[in-house]
Structure formats: structure tokens, C-alpha cells
Please model this.
Amino acid sequence: MADNEHNDQIIKWLNGELPEEQLMQEIGADNLLKYKQIIQEVDQWTPDNESVIFDPAVVTKKGKVMTMTRRMSLSVAASVVLVALFSIWMLRSDRTVHFTKAGETKQITLPDGLSIVTLAANSKVSWTEDDWNSSERRLQIDGKGFFQVEKGTPFSVAFQTGEVTVLGTSFEVSEFDESFQVICFEGKVRATDKNQGSRIVSAGEGYLYHHDQWEEKLNVTDTQPSWLQEETKFDNVPLAMVLKTLENEYDIQIIKNNVKLERRFTGSIPNKNLTLALKIVFDPLGISYEMKESKLTLSE
Model:
């Protein structure tokens, strides 16, 4: 488990202020997965509104003593630490957070009651009450999301490496490593990078911001993200973006070794058939791979 020195980083991650990959580097992939699983359970929990009568006799009644294994102790410790952090976070912030697990999508109605975001696998979106007012609508995303925005006050989506601002439109933001891609399906958006460079992205267009540079305009014919139909399309994207998608969709860890992540990939992969997805991505690139449990090891 992550120790106390990482508490601030975990709270920043809960607030949407720290990217998931950076937190994973701090606490490790296994610990991050534990936190996400516990938070997912909290997110789905519905309180029981029935009244409960406290009976001291039940508390004082003798019961069997159960010896806990080390694994059980660590699991309990993980839960206790996260609940404590979650409580601190709730006291510090009125932030609303929605998560998706690996291989999951989720549609969320935003506070204006009309706009919608659909989160792709292993993604997170969050906002505070102050982010939604009479003059602006604002939220943060970590991962990938498809936004359908009703016309009204300015609407902005912030993330580690930039921001997208619109009035009313539908668009996709996909963040990976130190890069992001914006695709506009309807209307027009302004995509701004962390260095304050920007691109106006109209319907049927997309732009990739990679290695602190904007790449050439991408022409888009789809009317919505392909992953809503259980496949993901890529058009001349870095291999790093494809690997991130595989990890998110199939809940696997990819050991990249010496594989060149800057090479480009164009094609479509299924989101529900890992065996086929691996063949489509790696066979044409001449990359060898070995799958053992939930770890995929690459070599070339």
C-alpha cells in the first residue's frame, strides 16, 4: 500500500489535479488499481434509508474470533487508508467525480441538466459547484470522453496538457501521456495546449497535440466516436496512444521494453476481443508479444 507520504498526491488525483499515470509512478500500478476499485464501489453505493435501531446487546454479544491472513490485513488496511483519504478529500472539496473501470463506458448528465458526457474506459471527469454558474460551465477530465454540449454559457474541459472551450457542440477529447487529441463532430471548438497555443477545430476535423507540437489537421467522417460501437479507430496516431487504449479497455499492464512508441498506427481494433486486437496492432508492426495473466510484454 501507498504510505502517508503519498496522501497529498492521492488527494490531488481525486481532485483531478494529478494525472493517473503520474500517480501510478508514485505508488505503483497495483496500489492504484486497489484505490480505483474501492472508489468505484463508493461511487456505486446507495445508502439504505430505512431506520436502524441500535441494540447494545448485539455489540456486546460474544462471537467467533477470526484470524486474518496477511493478504486480508493488507486489503483491510488499503480500505481504511482510502476511506480516511476519501473523508479528508470530501471535507476539503465539494468536487463531484465520476469514474469508469477498464472496459466500461458511462453516460453522465452534467449539472446544466442538458449537456452529456460519455466516458470511455478507465477515465474520470470532475467538477465543483463553483465551476457551474451563470457565466461559465467548467469541468476536468483524465482519460477520454465524448461531450454533447447544449448551447449556452461558455463550456470548457480542462486536462493536464490543455483545455477545450465551446459554446454548443459535440466533440471528443482523448488524453494520453503528455499529449491529447481533439475531434469535433458538430459545431466548433477551440483547443488550447499547456503553452497557450491553440487550434480552432470545426465539425469533421481533428487535431493531435504531441511532443509540444500541433500536427496537421485530421479529416473526420464519423458523427460520433467509434468506441461507442465497441471498436476504436486510429488515424496515424503514435503507438503510445494505441497502447494506452489497450490498457484501458482490457485492464492489462503493458511492459513496453525497447519498443519504439513514436511509430504510427492506422486501423480499427475491437474493444471486446483482446486476442484479435493484439494481432491487428502488433503483427503488421513486427512487434512480438507475450500475454501472461494481466501483463503483456512487448519486444522487437
The longest strand covers residues 169-176. Confidence is low (pLDDT under 50) at residues 46-52, 58-66. The chain has three domains: 4-93, 100-219, 230-299. The chain has seven helices and 20 strands.
